[in-house]
Amino acid sequence: MSEHDQTNRPRTSPTLNDVAKLAKVSTATVSRCLNNPSQVSKAKRERVMNAVRELGYAPNFGAQALAAKRTNTFGAIIPTMDNAIFARGLQAFQEELGRHGVTLLVASSSYSPELEEEQIRALVARGADALLLIGHDRTADSYAFLEQRRIPYVVAWTFNEAQSRPSIGFDNHKAMKRLMDHVLRLGHRDIALITAPRVGNDRARERFEGVQAAMQAQGLDPASLQIVETPYSIQNGAMAFEGLMSGPARPTAVICGNDVLAAGAMTMAQKLGIDVPGEVSITGFDDIEVAEIVSPGLTTVHVPHRNMGRGAARLLIELRNGEVTQSRVELQADLKLRGSLGAAPS
Amino acid sequence: MSEHDQTNRPRTSPTLNDVAKLAKVSTATVSRCLNNPSQVSKAKRERVMNAVRELGYAPNFGAQALAAKRTNTFGAIIPTMDNAIFARGLQAFQEELGRHGVTLLVASSSYSPELEEEQIRALVARGADALLLIGHDRTADSYAFLEQRRIPYVVAWTFNEAQSRPSIGFDNHKAMKRLMDHVLRLGHRDIALITAPRVGNDRARERFEGVQAAMQAQGLDPASLQIVETPYSIQNGAMAFEGLMSGPARPTAVICGNDVLAAGAMTMAQKLGIDVPGEVSITGFDDIEVAEIVSPGLTTVHVPHRNMGRGAARLLIELRNGEVTQSRVELQADLKLRGSLGAAPS
DNA sequence: TTGTAGGCGTTATCAA
DNA sequence: TTGATAACGCCTACAA
Hints:
Chain A is of the alpha/beta class. Helices cover 45% and strands 14% of the residues of chain A. Chain A has helices at residues 16-23, 27-35, 42-55, 61-68, 84-99, 113-125, 140-149, 172-185, 202-217, 234-245, 259-272, 290-293, 305-320; strands spanning 73-78, 103-108, 130-134, 153-156, 167-169, 191-195, 226-229, 253-256, 281-283, 300-302, 328-330, 334-336.
């Protein structure tokens, strides 16, 4: 039989009713077979299941959602899919949801709170039972909407003592401070930071504050920190690095807000013939695969993306089911020391 | 007002009926206001829109789908989100769909045809109006199901003369052959291929065949090609490369099925102190960002992922709308020559 | 254990 | 231009 076979098969999907007729039972029985098989006698159950198979029946989602008032669909809104860290976490999130019969609706906000608010409304309108969100920064209206509709949600990719919302992640401030403590211990005093835009991005902001905190703890003037703000991309990392190194106050350590920016910095260093870490040290954040590939290897903070995705899924399912739960989970993000960080040149 | 405010607001979403009552019109009028505003008098339209705003009304997706028999939701099933090439293409796909008011449902098959078939059924059951699929390889039942339900779909990430299905992509065979022609022109005769498992993955298979074709065209025995099959990952690429280089017949050129495997090979070469391209040349496929970061730069095939995603979205929307359309689009994938490929050592 | 029947929130057809 | 009203396909009391 050809794949393009055009016999006059039903042009419309089989319904519960069709199955019921074929199996000579009521629609209620068919419905029960599918949802609570134990309530149905074995004989009928087999007849029904055969009919289901024969017709290739699959429940109509809209009708199901309408009648049951639950869709078994969760939504996730991430800043962008085009970043390994979200992609990886999301993949794990999805795998775990799949294991629980939940399907995933994904949208991306392009790092815009207004767009994110639209996406939240859209996903809820489409019947998302629960939402995964990234970071705490969003419009007040977004939160008001979620509360009003009583939509379970969890905030991921960050853990912040000060926030009481259900969340799973690591403490960006603490992690970055730990990395910076190490950098300062190596004697660096002229520091530069290449960060993503901090407005509307609490992860970026907290990392920045972690850097400041470490400097203050060492008695350094935080105002001496050179800052370049630029969206995450290799290109931008490279350009920012070039600017810093050709500026008046050449740093001995360039701290990057994530590995993508750091990778850009590393390649530019190589292109400019600047020795890393001899002349300048470079650090990243995330520990994506690129960090191992560049040479020297990139010193960075290892973030457990897959764990975070999986944990978020479990948390969200518990919340949706109304199960009491420890709804704030802090994960560890450890330093990953590699060759790109060395002692300050004397 | 606190975010955790718990006043007794409606615990259930407002419906068309609520809006109708508030605006003192019928539900039909409200529905028309939302879908065909031009049919409603200006006065009523304003009254209705005010009520909509006041109540924060958003249509119930299930009910809409049930009544309108169309969901404005497309589905995409990709092998894995955890690979930059799919993530990037999907991001573009989603952006374009969003521009047309279509939302995206994403599932991943983990490279398993059986799992993919399940996902196809699940997405269709959830009301996907159309589907994006990767590659032509899938179960006969999958295709039968799609034809029977008359679900529009497009096959992406590949273009194959021999297939008549709607598709958008590039010719993997041709692209890999072109790369290999170049490799052979540089004098390489001892070739090894590190490829992803070819069963159920036509892209991998066609790339492999492209390698063979180039060898044959040069009068080389295709059987002399050393082949290592391993799933895409840096780790696996590194291990495969190590095996090849410590084996009895050390190749002078290692062709990798994609950049991820190639990146693994490159790092392992560096670790083993093997000079690239002095002792061995390495090539990749895809041209992801990593290709520019490794040193020397990775010679690879540039794949227009974002174009492909955007084009797939347009194609699919046309198909869904029943617009006649050129439904097979071939994109170009060009060689990207960088330092990792050099002349064969003499 | 099984069947009947009402209702979920929209859309769309028909009259008015 | 508007308003009743009948689908749409499923779930779930409630009855039998």
